[in-house]
Amino acid sequence: MYALPDLPYGYDALAPFVSSDTLHTHHDKHHKTYVDKTNDLAAKAGLAGRALEDVVREAQKAGDKKLFNNAAQAWNHAFFWESMRPPGGAAAAGDLQNAIRQGFGDLAALKAAFVDEGANHFASGWVWIVTGSDGLKVISTHDADDTLVREGVFPLLVCDLWEHAYYLDYKNDRKAFLERWFDNIANWDFAAAQLAAANGSGEGFRYPAPRGGGTDAGKGEAPRPTA
Hints:
Number of strands: 3
CATH topology of the largest domain: minor pseudopilin epsh fold
Helix content: 40-55%
Shape: globular
Strand order of the largest sheet: 2-1-3
């Protein structure tokens, strides 16, 4: 069984940029629903006990849209919680800062690209900072689509563009949400750890292993580090 992971901070820890009310609704209701549906659908597909990363990829290969949508959303949300930290955390530094300079010139230019991509993304989805053979890029994906099924793309950070991520706090002003998110609660330590994993040092983010799974539980393929 896949468990709903706890938030890595308190429900009020991201205020005033993301409210406790939003986190309770987003984590306890939306994310939980995706996890519950994944448990049901993965069992029906004969994938129970497999690492969630494997379930996402196998569902995509099989064209099982219901399972893919729920499993990918479960994974995306878990990655999203890690992409945030309470206000006042560390800024981008070291190899991550160098990668930002090489890819965008400076953090302000990365922010401009990130906010523009997310604010202009039509309908629901996700905006990502990723790395690959060409260095850092900003991309967006629609609905449940994620980086697990994209070759040569390794995620560093993600922000949720679905309305339930920001509507209680920002109404329809997605741009303001993205600007405040980037400036105040983006988790650059997590992004740095992901970049190190992409470069062969350490392991990238994985969803918590299913409980009571089979011998393959937790042994699936994580996001693929890039050359």
